[in-house]
Design goal:
367 residues; alpha+beta; Fumarylacetoacetate hydrolase, domain 2; 3 domains; eleven-stranded mixed β-sheet; five-stranded mixed β-sheet; 29% strand; globular; hydrolase activity; metal-binding; Fumarylacetoacetate hydrolase family protein; Fumarylacetoacetase-like_C; hydrolase
Amino acid sequence: MLPADHASGHFLGRAQTPDGPAVLSIRGGRLFDLTGEAASVSGAVQRRVFVGGCDIGPVEGGLPEGWSLLSPIDLQCIKASGVTFALSAIERVIEERARGDAASAATIRSQLEDKVGSGIRSVAPASAEAAQLKKALIEEGMWSQYLEVAIGPDAEIFSKSPILSSVGHGAQIGIRSDSSWNNPEPEVVLVCDSDGEIVGVSLGNDVNLRDFEGRSALLLSKAKDNNGSCAIGPFIRLFDDTFGLDDIRRAVVELEIEGPEGYLLKGKNEMAQISRDPLELVGQCLSEHHYPDGFVLFCGTLFAPTQDRDEPGAGFTHKIGDRVTIRSDRIGTLTNTVATSRDAPAWTMGIGEFVRNLAQRELVGKI
């Protein structure tokens, strides 16, 4: 799951041990338990506790027996930005106009691409050209709330999932059992401290219900925030002399979906095509908020699966048992299996249980 150059990089992560959650560090190709110095990843990021700890051994040896990988974040707020790529903007307008009906999406897609696609790809958000495009699209009856956040001054920023609810590499991801049109969203996830400084990056799956959000944008929380619907991992790659923000701007995030019936879908998310720079997205997320334990920010995706799965014109939707793999050369690989949110393992360790566990281990002062 680690990138090929992991021996030259620094990473943070988390694991479930028989005693409770542990904070992990990878450096020089070796795995360390940092919990005695920083009992939360949030605290490690805030205090820059990235070295030290108990040497577990080379990464090739894996985790100790009885340990399992968790999402690499804990007390950070989980935020997301949407409609940050031209294609995703068009697809959101399709959802809106199709009212969440996948069968009518293909016809609408061709109409919108002809009228909106070239224009939205050629303008910078909040520019004079964007304002002119908006005016023209309003006159043609083509305007949408999604185009507003795509090319207007304000990015879409929303709360994706509660603190401590994200799942990690190897876990099941959840879609609502009553959803008939849904998809993965492979994304870069920025990890920020309380001041909004980006300290590292991970991969994420912003699992999305297209039918719910398509019926009404007011159903965004039901479309986005469900049990198992937020996957992050495998580790946080920390910024250092070998890896930084420019590497994120050039990153390519690949997606592969392997269905239980033999279906295969591949796609990619190219960060070079994003319409708002990651620093701008972080600034808009920080805004007038306060995140004392830091925050992570999904950057949005270029990829929207339209490849038919069961019948012509029906497009793509998940099936139970889908294996979803998201990878980027210098960040790693995040793999999850699809279940319903009803049947996926329940989220049980909230903030209260997390603090009680650390108290029993006399680690609360190390948060």
